[in-house]
Design brief:
Layout lengths: L1 H11 L10 E6 L2 E6 L5 E5 L2 E5 L6 E2 L3 H8 L3 E5 L2 E4 L3 E6 L5 E5 L4 E4 L1 H11 L3
Antiparallel strand pairs: 1-2, 3-4, 3-7, 4-5, 6-7, 8-9, 9-10
């Protein structure tokens, strides 16, 4: 009976809406830097860190790429085992042999895209 009442209470509780963070706090040399998520063009793994590539540099955040992508939501898509890109930052996709490709961003940055992640990148870029 207690289980039923818990399930009923959980089902009737209002659903919490999740929103991705607008900024990330990055500790650099004892100081905390605020990085706006809207400024991040792409993400790159660096050992136990993720480099947040922006126009102002690439500060390192101590977190896994998978965990960070889960927090940032659908605006970012993994394009390689060591990289993810903001979908709105992609300007061109240059195909290579064997299904791999290179992503050229609006800023001119070049990001690798492996054939394993190519479909998951192209699907959200296609017009509805």
């Amino acid at each position: 009976i207690r289980l039923q009442s818990r399930l009923t209470a959980a089902a009737s509780a209002p659903a919490l809406t999740w929103t991705p963070p607008r900024q990330l706090l990055v500790t650099e040399r004892g100081a905390t830097r605020i990085v706006q998520v809207a400024d991040i063009e792409w993400l790159e793994t660096a050992d136990n860190y993720v480099a947040l590539h922006t126009r102002d540099g690439a500060p390192l955040l101590r977190q896994s790429l998978g965990t960070l992508l889960g927090q940032l939501g659908p605006a970012f898509v993994r394009c390689h085992r060591c990289a993810a890109v903001r979908l709105t930052a992609v300007n061109r996709i240059v195909p290579h042999s064997k299904g791999d490709c290179t992503l050229v961003l609006h800023s001119g940055a070049v990001v690798p895209c492996s054939r394993q992640y190519r479909a998951s990148l192209l699907d959200p870029l296609r017009p509805a």
